[in-house]
Amino acid sequence: MTELHWLSAADAARAFRERSVSPVELVTHVLDRIAARDHDLNVFVRLDAEGAMDAARAAEREIAAGRSLGPLHGIPVGIKDIIDVRGLPTTCHSRILLDNVAETDAAAVARLRAAGAIILGKVATHEFALGGPSFDLPFPPARNPWNRDHHPGGSSSGSGAGVAAGFFPLALGSDTAGSIRNPAGACGVFGIKPTYDLVPRGGVFPLAFTLDHVGALTRTVADAAIALDVLAAGPRHAPIGDPEGPIRGLRIGIVRNFFETDMEAVPEVAAAVEHAAYLLAAEGAVVTSVALPNLRYLAAIGRTILQGEAWTVHAAWMRNRPQDYARSTRRRLLPGALLSASDYIDAQRRRREAIDAVERTFRDVDVLLTANALDPACRIDDDVSITRTYPRQARTPFNVTGHPAASIMAGLSPDGLPLAIQLVGRYYDERTLLRVAARYERATGAADRHPDIRTDA
Amino acid sequence: MDETIVEALARAAGLDTVWHDFRADLLAAASQVEDQRRVLNDAPAPAAEPWPAMSVPERDD
Lengths: 457, 61
Hints:
The structure holds 2 protein chains of 2 kinds. Chain A is α/β, with parallel strands linked by helices. Chain A is built from 16 helices and 11 strands. Chain A has an 11-stranded mixed beta sheet with strand order 1-3-2-4-6-5-10-11-9-7-8, with helices on both faces. In chain A, strand 10 and strand 11 (418-425) form a beta hairpin. In chain A, helix 2 packs antiparallel against helix 3, helix 5 (157-164) packs parallel to helix 6 (181-187) and helix 7 (221-231) runs antiparallel to helix 16 (430-444). The longest helix of chain A has 26 residues, at 295-320. Chain B is mainly α. Chain B has helices spanning 3-12, 16-21, 23-39. Chain B is elongated. Classes of the chains: A alpha/beta, B mainly alpha. The A-B interface holds A 296-297, 300-301, 303-304, 307, 315, 318-320, 322-323, 327, 330-331, 333-335, 337-339, 343, 345-350, 352-353, 356 and B 1, 6, 9-10, 13-15, 17-18, 21-22, 25-26, 28-30, 32-33, 35-37, 39-40, 43-44, 50-53.
């Protein structure tokens, strides 16, 4: 039998129904594992073990009585620490908000709870979902479970590391310039940023209002479908259910200009994307080459909008408490003070053109395939490499346009670090995106690869 | 961006403390802004579409 900490949410829910595992057993097991290993990985900023055990006992009673709250009943989850959880601090991993205790759950957390999820606690982020990884903050940065000397990606770093480490099968993250897909890729798990505003952002500390997305990190595509059906419930989201299905005849456009000419990916990343195209074609998809506007151009639009909007959030604190930010956060926020109004407005107009360009491409294809990060995760203490690789990614364009986009593991680098590809769907068509991802997952066994972290649990 | 311009912009934004204590960060920020402007150097015609988005609530009949 699969070890408890590697159970997917779907498998755990099935085991609960069959009475082969109970929520108390699962939560006890993952809490033991966290106690044994998190001192090496720094996933949790605030672990609520007592609250989680209370919720597990309640879930056990309910399930035993035949009352199920929903598909996540009894499933432990981690919440990025920019997202409010009632009664716990939302620190944003920052000195500035150390005592900021949330009075209510964020809308997304409320939806998880209503579906029966058990909140384990708050997990690490880059400061305000922007800086990092930083060693000059009140909490240490999360580490990569595949090699703790390496960056786990960010800013949803604890979400990615915790899912990969077997601390929880599902985490909430946010993605403003790639912050779900980056840690998902670096930690070898699945991460999806749904269509802009599909998952409500209430109770999530903003980074950039028109770029922020809330989404999920999981170990399996099927769990991501469950999470989206819970988080995105409403008239704009048709429930996905089981994402498995044939992809014969689906048209997949591979965006090579991003990683071949606009910026050059390392060979193993480019090879991973090409191999994915080969596998998907072997499954019956029709793969064609498409071109999007230059990646550097799209990234500059995204950065300008992000900096302008983030400045409106942080200007007062930066004037009065600049020393309380990490150095890397200050450097990423301060451009907002130097931009002009016309820089921002011009970027928004270019954004409309970028949206039109991607929409034109979607007339001819159903899903886009491209790179995620252009490099495997670098060492976490190597500032030069972090600064160099930070902009070398193909994620930001889909924050600019708001299309749903996902990262899925694509094997390991020669150094044993996860590689990933990115899949992008039409607006509100997460179902087709997940169908392609599920097919790729099945073809590669992506969901069955885990880091070898030894614990006593 | 010339350092005197960065200082003027910083002071106008109320960032005297940042200019005094974290000048290198402001200069690095200015360099980032310049890099972005270099990439976005062909400004669209001022009056041409697309215009920035704006929406009003649905009519409530």
